[in-house]
Amino acid sequence: MDSLQKQTLNPNKHLKEQFVSNLHGSSILEIAALLTIVPLLVLLRYSIGLHCRTDNNGKAISSKKNDDDIVVSRNWKAYTYAISLDFIFIVFPMLLFFTVLSEWVYLGAVLLSLLLLLILSVTAKRSSTALQRAGQSLSFRASVSSYRVALMLITCLCILAVDFTIFPRRYAKTETYGTSLMDLGVGSFVLANAIVSRQARDVSSGNWITGLKATAPLLLLGFIRLVTTSGVDYQVHVTEYGVHWNFFFTLAGISILTSFVNIPAKYCGILGFTVLAGYQTWLVSGLNTYLLSDERGTDIISKNKEGVFSILGYWGMYLLGVHLGYRLFYAKHSNIRSTTSSIARVFLVSLLLWIVTILLDNYVERISRRTCNMPYVTWVLAQDLQALGIFMLSRYIPMNKLSSLEEAIDQNLLATFLLANIFTGMVNLAIDTIFASPVSSLMILSIYAFALSAIIGTVHFSGFRLKFW
């Protein structure tokens, strides 16, 4: 037995699994403050300028604000400088707030908000002039891209940071009920995809066969993850999805259901609410007791009960996201530009969803990511729309545009996620993360974050693109 333990690639597997188990999360307010800080950091980065973009041939185009003019240059040095600034002003502060500055989240949100308001008040006149010259404001799609990139950065930082003691346990995924930063992950991905989907834009997505073909890469990635984690004896938090299930299988399940039940966006809200209402009724009738228990049979469904049954909740969330995307941004009465009225609509819907979330959480069932119940769905919708509304405020910043790192990640979302997973696995197999000191933990996480940013930036500079969701 001792010799077998010595030969394993992950001798502290069970300790690492226990380290992320039986957690109860944080408060909704703290998570909302964290998700306010992230877009504020991005908007403050916009206000600094000194971006660098690439043309269709992959050549770097550096942009520096000079009042209302843009100075353009093409070179690798300018691009690396811009990427470095993005890391310093966006990625590294995010990492600090997720770790060593976690006790200062509320103060950080207030101070960053005041700083942004000060900058906006100073640049208000220039912003109006710039918008008049441009003839339009930053598109809603660009704001969604910013949010999707921020979501990816949060995910990439958290999947490794959670294995270190420097990462607060209240930010790790909850065991049964509760809310945490990492609980937002898969739900936010589902919603972000729904809002900009072809269905939300009322564009034909073909027949069910086309949909199934598009699902194939997700299924392939799901099986690759399953085989590799089993092959290296990697730690798996079974109560997250089940014994064999993972994030990619959930996305694939939603895609398959959507392919078979493909209805116009204006009716998706009704279907989504019906699915969620039926699922929530089933949960409170006893299904939640089964899903949250340690009971597992020998059949494949019982072994993966969390992943299998939660698809109903995530599908309902997807349908509501499609409906909200259509009504808020793509319907005939809507303007897909980030106008003041569209921003106000987003914040209003977010406020209404916050009220619904509080009522459901107190009087129906507590929020549970593990079952993806109705309170969890409305919480994700409220939180994500709030963050999206903040990103849409970028229209008030003169000469705003996606930062260089945002463009790089946006064009390579899949590559970024896969690379982060590879790095996370390598670090965990090479280091006993749960025994690392705070200083060494922060150093490792900083190197990891910078390496990820630098590699994705280099990939984008070379003109490579890997993106299918």
UniProtKB/TrEMBL annotation:
It is found in: Membrane. Pfam families: GWT1. GO terms for molecular function: O-acyltransferase activity. The chain crosses the membrane at residues 23-44, 78-98, 104-124, 145-167, 179-196, 208-228, 243-263, 270-291, 311-330, 342-364, 376-393, 413-436, 442-464. InterPro entries: PIGW/GWT1. One of its GO terms (cellular component) is membrane. GO terms for biological process: GPI anchor metabolic process. It is a multi-pass membrane protein. It comes from the Eukaryota. Keywords: Membrane, Transmembrane, Transmembrane helix. The keyword Transmembrane helix applies. This is GPI-anchored wall transfer protein. It comes from Cardamine amara subsp. amara. The lineage of its organism: Eukaryota, Viridiplantae, Streptophyta, Embryophyta, Tracheophyta.
